[in-house]
Structure formats: C-alpha cells, structure tokens
Amino acid sequence: MITHDTKNVLVVSFGFLLLFTAYGGLQSLQSSLNAEDGMGVISISVIYGAIILSSMFLPPIMIKNLGCKWTIVISMGCYVAYSFGNLSPGWASLMSTSAILGFGGSPLWSAKCTYLTISANKQGQKLNKKSQDIINQYFGVFFFIFQTSTVWGNLMSSLIFGQDSNIAEIPEENLQYCGAGLCIENFTTTGNTTRPEKRLVDILLGCYIGVGLLAIIFVALFLDNIDRDLAREFRKNKGNVSFCSTILSTFKLMRNPKLLLLIPLTIYSGFEQSFLDGEYTKNYVTCALGIHYVGFVMICFGAVNSLCSFAFGRLAAYTGRIPLFCLAALINLGCILGLLYWKPHPDQLPVFFVFSALWGMADAVWQIQTNALYGILFADHKEAAFANYRMWESLGFVIAFAYSTYICLSTKIYIILTLLAVTMVTYLFVEYKEYKQPTEQMIYVFNSEKTDLKDEKYVKIRENLNEKYVVSQTHF
Fold first, then answer.
1. Which CATH superfamily is domain 4-231+241-438 in?
2. Which terminus of the chain faces fewer neighbouring Cβ atoms within 10 Å, N or C?
C-alpha cells in the first residue's frame, strides 16, 4: 500500500521526469544543434550563471514565502520558456530564455530537495527509523524515476531526427579529428555536424513544450502542499524576520567547515555532467557517428543511471556512503583515462555505449549521495544548504561550458582528472570529521498519550531544531 508521503515522492519524481524529458533532451543537443559560434554551449553557460545568481538569494525566500510546492510549479514554467526560445534560436531569444531558466533552476532544485527531506523526516518519525536511511531511499526513488527522462527525451530526438534526409556518411579522413588526439576544437562544428531540417526541429520542440506544460499541470494538481502552514506562518510573521537574514542564509552557511570541504565535490558534479553533455556528445559521438546518434547514446546513459540510482539508494543503508563514492571515483577515473587515448571510429559502435553506461553508473552515485549528504549534514538549514549545492554545482557547469570552445579537449580531460583527485581528498576529510564529530541524528517518538505536544519546552525545541530531529522523551 502506498503511503501519503510515498505518493508525494512519486508525484515530485514524475513531475521532474516530464519536465526534464524536455529540457534534458534539449540540453544534450545544444553543443551540436546550435553549434554556430558556440551559441548552444554559451546558452548553457548563461543558464548556470543565472542559477549561481539565483542561488544567492532566491531559494530561501521563495520556499519560505510560497512553500515547496508552488516554488516548484513557478520554477517549472521557467524551464518551459527555454524550449520556446529554441523555436527561433538567435542570440537574443536563446540568451534571454536561458537566463529565465537559470533564475528558476536553483529554487526548483532547492524546493525539491527540501520537500523530499521534510517527507523523509516525517516518514522516519512514523516508522521510528533513521532519517538518513529514509532520505537515501527517497532520493534513490526520485533519481530512479527522474534519470529515465534522459531516455525519453533523447528517444524523442533520435526518432524524429532519424527521419532527416540530410544524414550523410562521415568521410574517413575527418575521423582523425575526433576524440582528444588533435586540438582542432571547432572542427565538428563545420565538418561533421549538419543541422537537421527545420521542420523536424520544430516538431521536436513542440513535443518538448507539450511535455513541459504537462509537468506543471501534474504537479499543481497532485502534489500536497506539506509546508503550507509553515509558509503561511512565515508570511504572517515576516515583519519579525530579517529579510536580509533570510536572503543571506545561503552565505551564512558557508561558515560551516563541512560545507566548505564539500565545495570541490559539488563543483565536480557540475563538471562531470557537463563533460558528458558538452564534450562527449560533440567530440566523440557527433564527430564519429553523427548528431542522430547522440540521443541513442544518451538513452544508454539515462537507463543505466536510473537503475543504478534505485539500487545505490537502497544499497547505501548497508554499505554506507564512502564505498559508493569511491566506486564512482574509480569508474570516472577509468573512463577519463580511456577517453584520453581512445580514437573513436564508427566501427567501434558498442564502445560509445560502454562509456556512456559507465558514466551513468558513476553519475548515479554523485547525484544521490551528494544530495543525501547535504540533507543529512545540514538538516537544520535545508533551504540554504541545497541553495549552496545548486550554486556550487552550477559554477562547475559554467566553468566547464565557458572554456569549452577555447581550450583543447585533452586539456579539459586533465582538468577534470585533477578536480576528481581534489574532490576525493576533501570528501574523505568531511567523512573523517563526521566520524570524529557526528552530526546529531536523533530518532524521536512522541507518545501523544503521555506528552503534551503544546508544552512550551517541546514547542521551543521543535522551533530551534527546525525539523532536524524530534527528540525522545528520554532526552529530557
């Protein structure tokens, strides 16, 4: 039987599935579809630059005033605007809608993470289980469903673009420029990429817009407003709350040493995702196989990512975080070294899918465990913590996409390899500090027959802990 909290997790997950079926498929194509002057890649940089700005002030104030549900709904509308901008791609239309999407991006993800964390804490209370285990399970379910958006979004693009009559064989002599061997970064823009027919592009964008609008309607109708009372109370008492204090809560949390040590891990999350979307799809898949293969390769990534998200979300309860993070690091290390020396060729078709599958397995760990780690370590400052997460992850995207057309692919590979090493050192130090000084995670059970929940000391504790934990009567 599906519980109330589980229903909400499923609604959030399927809402994001629909939304990112549209956006994810479109993002995967940007480096190839709008390749002129690097317009597609630059538009993605604008998106994540705007996310950084919005992360500084928007998530806490929107979530506290509107609640998680309506923050998600409004932010979803910003994503749909980007699909409209691609109908007539130009610098003005693409960059303006990219900025709109970016300003909605951080509130969307912060609200989602906050919503799942609140739901997990409530479920942990009911079942008398560790909140962190429920958080891992909820994020696992979310990413299991959410990551299939890569499958559906790219399946749509592959089937539609597969009807293009302009598909041509790639000359053998052009293949020498694929991969990291030669430093001619713009070759795939002029040589191996042919933009599909406008009719097919418009059909695809029409499908993406329809799916995005469906996501907004679905969440608005079926998601429970679980923090409605908190939002109403905040609006009523906001005269007593410093507006600047609420906005600056994102920056105040940076005084926490654990958060500072998690910054490299969070930035790396943006780097590794942007590498697949921007570099692997352009310099390996599009260059050697053609743009119509991008969707199929990304389908493989999404399918493996989805399955591993579900498996790792449950496995974490038995293995803990550290073995999973180490597994992801080893997988990425192997892929990075392999891509550095591999010369892609159409005759090696299975290899293209092997790399995307392995990258999907590693990404499942980075996404679930990093989100869960923020929810566990900073449970008393959820909005600010997840705003920080989006801000630093987006910085990784911005940096990676910003230099995409200016430096050699081999140099980019060495950069991501170095960042991976720094990430693991700082992450393991966080785990060491957590081992020495654990973040308090108390399971609570209020016995309504023996405890007056309106008792002043209980009310004060709940306010101070801000839903971080409920404390057993034996603690008083």
1. MFS general substrate transporter like domains (1.20.1250.20)
2. N
